[in-house]
UniProtKB/TrEMBL annotation:
Keywords per UniProt: Amino-acid transport, ATP-binding, Cell membrane, Membrane, Nucleotide-binding, Translocase, Transport
Statement: the UniProt record of this protein carries the keyword Phosphoprotein: no
GO cellular component: plasma membrane
Residue intervals of the ABC transporter domain: 2-243
Record family assignment: Belongs to the ABC transporter superfamily.
Taxonomic lineage of the native organism: Bacteria, Bacillati, Actinomycetota, Actinomycetes, Geodermatophilales
The organism of origin for this protein: Klenkia marina
Keyword Translocase: yes
Protein name, entry field: D-methionine transport system ATP-binding protein
Length: 331
């Protein structure tokens, strides 16, 4: 649904300054129906990337395809037409203060010549979808930040896009509003069958709603994939950022085991063998288990405090053969 191939974007330097390479050979594929995140520190190229997807910025080189159309091959008038299949949600809402919530939602339809009756019908339908039917007549100054973003989401959906782009859509919101907006985006994706690409610097946002993600650093993709795969890789910088691995403390007595938890390899399987079969005394020395991409994922550090360790290595081999990720990190 979204495909960037060897995309490079270079901005000329100001006056005598050197040129700025914002993106440097980025490859990105987002399948239809996926909720994908692009995460990275400030200056990594995230916002430039999302502006390239709908060609608000043209790449210096490389290609951008959306919904089967290579946008970088299209003339300007066809690019404008192609953008009708791409909705955009901004960090600071970008609502028109002089218009009501309903009129803001109607605006993109007005620009494309849709009749008044159909505009009003569509606006009412979308405001109901985002939970703001009763606020249709309110102006932006009368709405909270979370409500403004819901109106902006409704407006982005007005033209029935196939793809929804979200540029730091929750960065200006408090925690309660962030949770509500993320839940809405996930529900809208599910109900309307959209493909969503979300730009954020917040790992908590990726964990809350994304199926897949890429990590950008200095304009390059340094890691990425489906989260349920990424979180099982010990060498993944994205996994380390999402769920930092617990660190073994040399001062802690006992045998330490590091366990990677997934939906198919729960920590209970490891504990059942260690405690149930071997009769060992085990406690959690660190780490956490969270819900990520709709499933349980985590990294735990287990400490064996008492018991006969003679059968431990054999038991660990058994667990690995059954799909558990467990390693002995200290003795």
């Amino acid at each position: 649904m979204i495909e960037l191939n060897r995309v490079r974007k270079v901005f000329p330097g100001r006056r005598d300054a050197a040129e700025v390479v914002a993106l440097d050979g980025v490859d990105l594929t987002v399948p239809a129906g996926d909720f994908a995140g692009v995460v990275g520190p400030s200056g990594s190229g995230k916002s430039t990337l999302i502006r390239l997807v709908n060609l608000l910025e043209r790449p210096t080189s490389g290609s951008v395809a959306v919904a089967g159309r290579v946008l970088t091959d299209l003339p300007a008038d066809q690019v404008r037409q192609a953008r009708s299949s791409i909705g955009m949600v901004f960090q600071h809402f970008e609502l028109m203060d002089s218009r009501t919530a309903a009129e803001n939602v109607e605006h993109p339809l007005e620009l494309t010549g849709v009749g008044r009756a159909e505009r009003r019908r569509r606006s009412a339908e979308l405001l109901d979808l985002v939970g703001l039917a009763e606020r249709a007549g309110a102006r932006p100054r009368q709405l909270s930040g979370g409500q403004k973003q819901r109106v902006a989401i409704a407006r982005a959906l007005a033209a029935r896009p196939q793809v929804l782009l979200c540029d730091e859509a929750t960065s200006a919101l408090d925690q309660a509003s962030t949770t509500g907006v993320l839940e809405l985006l996930r529900r809208v994706r599910d109900e309307l069958g959209l493909t969503v690409l979300l730009i954020t610097h917040e790992m908590a946002v990726v964990k809350a709603v994304c199926d897949s993600a890429v990590l950008l650093e200095a304009g390059r993709v340094v890691d990425g994939g489906r989260l349920d795969d990424v979180l099982t890789r010990d060498d993944s910088p994205l996994a380390a950022a999402l769920l930092p691995a617990p660190i073994a403390d040399d001062r802690v007595a006992g045998t330490l085991l590091r366990v990677t938890v997934t939906e198919t390899a729960p920590e209970a399987a490891v504990l059942r063998v260690l405690v149930g079969q071997l009769g060992l005394a085990v406690e959690v020395a660190g780490g956490s288990v969270e819900t990520v991409a709709g499933g349980r994922h985590g990294r735990l550090l287990l400490r064996i405090t008492d018991g006969d360790l003679s059968g431990l290595d054999t038991a660990l081999q058994q667990l690995r053969a059954e799909g558990s990720k467990v390693e002995r990190v200290a003795a």
